[in-house]
Write a structure and sequence with these properties.
The complex is a heterodimer. Chain A is of the alpha/beta class. Chain A folds into three domains: about 240 residues, Thiamin diphosphate (ThDP)-binding fold, Pyr/PP domains (Rossmann fold, 3-Layer(aba) Sandwich); about 80 residues, Rossmann fold, CATH 3.40.50; about 35 residues, no CATH class. Chain A contains 15 helices and 15 strands. In chain A, the strands form four sheets. Chain A has a seven-stranded mixed sheet with strand order 3-2-4-5-7-6-12, with helices on both faces. Chain B is α/β, with parallel strands linked by helices. Chain B has one domain: Pyruvate-ferredoxin oxidoreductase, PFOR, domain III (Pyruvate-ferredoxin Oxidoreductase, domain 3, 3-Layer(aba) Sandwich), CATH 3.40.920.10. The longest helix of chain B is centred in the last third of the chain and has 32 residues. The radius of gyration of chain B is 16 Å and the shape is globular. Chain B starts with a strand and ends in an 11-residue tail after the last helix. Classes of the chains: A alpha/beta, B alpha/beta. At the A-B interface, strand 8 and helix 10 of A face helix 1 and strand 2 of B.
Chain lengths: ~425, ~210
């Protein structure tokens, strides 16, 4: 139903429609309105079969979400800025454990100096944690993406962070078409974890993995992120069928057909880019806009083909790495590396695995023969991976213990926790 | 696109005013967007809120620098902050005050305006009379409906009812109606004055 509603309220409603079972949060601007509204919904009984856990910090908020998700409950939390940094250890753990938690990040700058306003510094601070990161352009997007995020997270056993610009979206009222419970139920089946923590049959999760398997664990994490790209295309289609509006996919394209210049952004600035494109088109400038919705996994192939015909790419980015530059433009530049020299990434030495002279030499040799890919995991144990990769292809339902990762742990000897 | 900027102080319902105005436009089938000046709002501190209304999707999200209408909920602000920034000859300005432009000392700051679009309404007095509290926002929205004609008084009343209930809603609706009447009368007087001075042009303030 069409409503004129504040972004935070719309997100709270969308989260409620997704039937979460545990919500835990610690208030921080500009996310507060969302969890306030959800706490009211739980207290009043409007949101049934859901426990709202008041916690003492953001670290506790995500830790409770991790525990709840591992126990098989659909779990949600929200934070921003310093709050995200305070929970960052748990952010990595949620991804490493493959727990399908959904978290709103109401994007806000990070101090000092203290600043409560929007930028993407917080999202960038955790871009390498292994979460899927989606960015909302409008409050319609923000509401839709939360329902979407639960589906994506549970299908892939990966936590999903929905980024919405703090204040600019969270505190703005605008027109949002909120779906019915029937529609959401048709799109998002109940969470069915393949395994979960059970007091009657206790196991430990996230136990130690040494040099002999840590690289494979990380390789699989990357594999799942890349798999998400095809899942996103499939889920987009189903979302469109149920809700009557198809999400934009990895990114939205605006007047890109013959664009010589492309403006790129993530989040609420994309609308402004479109307005500016209209202005410049009127002056005869061949310009288009690309609004990136899916930042992690990074849809490199799609971006490359979208931007390959252009002359200039202008990345309007809301974060900056001191001493280097913008992170988003660096990612985009990396996808456009078509001129000599080609840049190769060789991932090596993770979790204590030795970087050996022999392996280094073999990578150099492969490069000399033109056989080295753009990204290579050094010394990957192919036999260990083979079975897990096959399993990932067939069994996609969620696992509280992170499915394939747990299998690797179990098959790798004494570190198996059972 | 019609853009409204609202100035007031924390506690006067500045943000609520923008949201109710957006709601009124929404009830008329328009696209509307309302948002506050993002800051650490405190009781009594200057607060700004914004409302955009259009017949098509609104993609802009920046603060409104060139308003089509300016609502001033607290006349003590007129010399304290740059509230008249970005106004043009066509901007409507509605100030919550019982004083005249000369008494407020804003003749110079508003010289660019069409005189027929600069109006005052004692919204706080109307609020005290009808609501029992010094909350001028609903009354100013009633006045806005009169000056701009961009949203109807009926839609403003509907928006008030959507936001408040019971006697609070009723009181605010009465205040909005009283303000609507007051401003309409004021415009009629201005229009007569203008007609007497320069036969012909009435400044184009008449709205159905």
């Amino acid at each position: 139903m069409l409503e004129q509603i504040e972004g935070s309220q719309a997100v709270a409603r969308a989260v409620g429609l997704s039937r979460p079972e545990v919500i835990c949060a610690y208030p921080i601007s500009p996310q507060t309105h969302i969890v306030e509204a959800l706490s009211v919904a739980v207290k009043s009984g409007a949101l049934e079969h859901c426990e709202f856990v008041n916690v003492e910090s953001e670290f506790a908020a995500l830790s409770v979400a991790i525990g709840a998700s591992a126990a098989g409950a659909r779990s949600y939390t929200a934070t921003a800025s310093q709050g995200l940094l305070y929970m960052i250890e748990a952010v990595y753990n949620a991804a490493g454990l493959g727990l399908p938690i959904v978290m709103t990040l109401a994007n806000r700058a990070i101090g000092a100096p203290i600043n409560i306003w929007n930028d993407h510094s917080d999202a960038m601070a955790v871009r390498d944690a292994g979460w899927i990161q989606l960015f909302a352009e409008t409050n319609q997007d923000a509401a839709d993406l939360h329902i979407y995020a639960f589906r994506l997270a549970e299908q892939l056993s990966v936590p999903v962070m929905v980024n919405m610009d703090g204040f600019i979206l969270t505190h703005a009222t605008e027109r949002v078409d909120l779906p019915s419970q029937e529609q959401v139920d048709a799109f998002l089946p109940p969470y069915a974890p393949r395994t979960y923590l059970d007091p009657a049959d206790p196991v430990s999760i996230g136990a130690m993995v040494g040099p002999e398997a840590f690289t494979e664990v990380r390789y699989l994490a990357s594999l799942r992120q890349h798999e998400a790209l095809s899942s996103i295309e499939q889920i987009d289609e189903e979302f469109g069928e149920v809700f009557g509006r198809r999400p934009c996919g990895f990114f939205s394209s605006y007047r890109m057909e013959d664009a010589e210049i492309v403006a790129v952004a993530m989040g609420s600035a994309v609308g402004t880019l479109k307005d500016a494109v209209d202005d410049m088109r009127e002056q005869g400038v061949r310009v288009g806009a690309l609004g990136l919705r899916t930042f992690r996994p990074f849809p490199a192939d799609a971006i490359r083909s979208a931007l390959s015909g252009s002359r200039s790419v202008l990345v309007f980015e809301r974060a900056h790495s001191p001493g280097f530059g913008g992170q988003l433009s660096a990612d985009i530049a990396a996808t456009l590396r078509s001129v000599e020299p080609t840049v190769h990434s060789v991932v090596s030495g993770l979790g204590g695995r030795p970087v050996t002279r022999r392996s280094v030499a073999s990578a150099i040799q492969a490069s000399a023969k033109g056989e080295l890919g753009l990204e290579t995991f050094l010394d990957l144990d192919e036999s260990l991976l083979k079975r897990e990769v096959t399993e990932l292809g067939t069994a996609r339902r969620s696992s509280a213990t992170g499915g394939a990762v747990a299998q690797i742990i179990e098959s790798s000897g004494p570190q198996g926790a059972r | 696109m019609f853009q409204v900027r609202i100035h007031g102080r924390g506690g006067q319902g500045v943000v609520t005013a923008a949201e109710m105005l957006a709601m009124a436009a929404f009830f008329e089938g328009k696209y509307a967007q309302a948002f506050p000046s993002f800051g650490s709002e405190r009781m009594g501190a200057p607060v700004v809120s914004f409302c955009r209304m259009d017949d098509r999707e609104i993609r802009a999200r920046e603060p409104i620098t060139h308003p089509d209408a300016l609502l001033v909920q607290d006349a003590t602000l007129v010399h304290q902050s740059d509230i008249f920034a970005g106004i043009g000859p066509q901007t409507y300005v509605l100030i919550n005050t019982g004083k005249t432009v000369a008494e407020l000392g804003i003749a110079e700051a508003t010289v660019i305006l069409d005189p027929a679009r600069l109006l005052q309404v004692p919204a706080t007095e109307l609020a005290l009379e009808h609501v029992g509290r010094a909350v001028p926002n609903a009354a100013l929205l009633g006045g806005f409906a009169a000056i701009s004609g961009f949203v109807s008084l009926g839609s403003v009343e509907k928006a008030i009812s959507h936001r408040f209930s019971g006697i609070v809603a009723e009181g605010n609706i009465r205040a909005a109606r009283a303000s609507f009447e007051f401003v309409n009368q004021e415009m009629a007087e201005l229009s007569r004055g203008a007609a007497n001075q320069t036969a012909g042009s009435t400044g184009g303030v008449n709205r159905a």
